[in-house]
User: What shape does this take?
Amino acid sequence: MKIRVGLGFDAHPFSLSGELKLGGVSIPHGVGLEGHSDGDALLHAITDAILGAAGQGSIGDHFPPTDPQWKGADSARFLERAQDLARDRFLVINNIDAVVVAEAPRIAPHAAKIRERIAEILGIDADAINVRGTSTNRMGFPGRGEGVAAMAVVLLVSPE
Assistant: This one.
């Protein structure tokens, strides 16, 4: 059996406009995230982890922020495409582990809904997905309340 691991990271500053979306879920917070697409740092990190594990480059290679077609795009499209590229290499998602780094909003109250949404997008069991939050104890840009970062690790396996 072929086993491949990918690591993804993304960060976006808060914006006074738009809504805050993390893991494909709208989270009430009074501010959104800046980005060329919808700014969903969590879906971007997972997308990058899948692409990395599949040996398919990065999210910027496939969805460059200079391309107007991705302006305001739903990041679920990026995640679906990354999964398709992995499947083209006969690799499927075994599991995803992800963490959102922010002082606020707290992720725990939304984690189950986020897991379900990611599972829905990918067509996999929510039990294969772990999502949690952490803070930086007020250090760095997330600690100062300037934005959100997200990290993800994905394990892809061949279905053989």
